[in-house]
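ENTRY TYPE: paired fold submission
RECORD: A
CONTENT: sequence, then structure tokens
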Amino acid sequence: MGMKSLLRVGYLMMVVQGLLSVFLPKKALKLATAGWRVGFENVDELEPREWYVEVTKIAGVGMLAGGLTGLLVTSAENAEKERSKAQMAAGESASEHDSDADTDESDDDDGGPVTIDIDDDE
């Protein structure tokens, strides 16, 4: 499993956590705190305060937006990579397209600094 695949799995997990946090915030809090509750007694009697439930919902919206954005970006990168592979297989390369664009530019540009005279000597 490559790094891109792991990244997509992470984004997908973020989307799922965001959905849980937005639509089932109390369940999401219970799931998130399940690990540390093991060492305590009477944790089933604990109830989160209302403001904390609201903050969980807001954080869920952020996780949902971040996860979906990450999935869209990685999908676009994969599509671009596939498109460039298809162009390479068809005999086209990016350097052929770049050389066509460079023919219109002048060859006497040395890449040095450009000076502009702004004095009005009229």
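RECORD: B
CONTENT: sequence, then structure tokens
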Amino acid sequence: MTADLEPQRTSLDVEEIRSQLITWLQGKVSDGNAMISDFRRPSGSGMSSETLLFSATWETEQGQQHSNLVARLAPTDQDIPVFPSYNLSLQVEAMRLVETQTKIPVPRTLWLEEATNVLGVPFFVMEQIIGRVPADIPPYVFGGWLLDAEKEERSALERSAVNIIAEISQINLSEIDTSFLEFETTGETPLERHFSNQMNYYSWVVGDQRQHPVIEAATVWLKNNWPDESETVLSWGDARIGNIMFGMNTFQPTAVLDWEMAGLAPVEVDLGWMIFLHKFFQNIAEEFEFDGMPQFMNSEKVSTYFTEITGKIPEDLLWFEIYAGMRHAIIMSRINDRSVHFGEAEWTDDVDSAIPHRNLLWSMMSGS
């Protein structure tokens, strides 16, 4: 697997965006000579939105200001967005909440632009943080700095990642307006509403075009094995090491990224997602006959770290791992829609072939 296989994310013209962004920045900083340089796309990251990196220079009363910045753009409708809606305000509010209530490093957001007449889509701009991220494309289990790390270094990274979820879960929500995190779906509890939100997402993805046997079966399994719900916390939503930036020479976080799936849920939703997303990549590595990292970020380790940090024992982690697998299967179905749109794939009669982890998910449900 190579970076050459990286799928297309958007049809937006980057050079056109650069020109429009300069004009917008000049108005924001009240400097008609403000400029943007080193404008580029990062590689090896997710596909739910467009991320652009650049440097900006402008004059202030205190002198010249120079900042390295990141713009996150909502996807365009014509590019088959991964999610039915893309709430940038939610992301910004979640990041600012975490910034004020914890010691977790999150990038400082500078501007939120919800109007579509600037770049054609809403976007926000935040400070750029220096660091390294375990890559999604090609997955970090195939090679790179994390695979090459010593056992003790990997353990330090695992614990620091679990610590992020632990810290987020300890935010006292009783005196915070969390309405922006609520799922407007059916259900009497936060987990029930989280689940029904995913079912709505599945219906939106497949419409009347297809049904995925593995997703249908996982839905039934999850309903028949519903867990006892623990305390409701702020859920990061996309809690995985691929959304954490680590120091260039350390295995400690320098930035926690991607809050587009934030909401309210038991902490096990995030723990299960973190465990499963590594299991997903490890499964791919083994199918290609790579060793990968079989002992990394497994259920026992994650549960032990979380208990050591918080004093609380995660409950029903298998349920939450299967829930993560079902949710990720829906995302993979939508990503295949995108690939078909860009001429990189096609649908076959075996619709579950678009879900790389379908056999893993079946085996988890069967207990094998």
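NOTES ON RECORD B: The longest helix spans residues 317-341. The chain has a mean pLDDT of 93.
STATUS: closed
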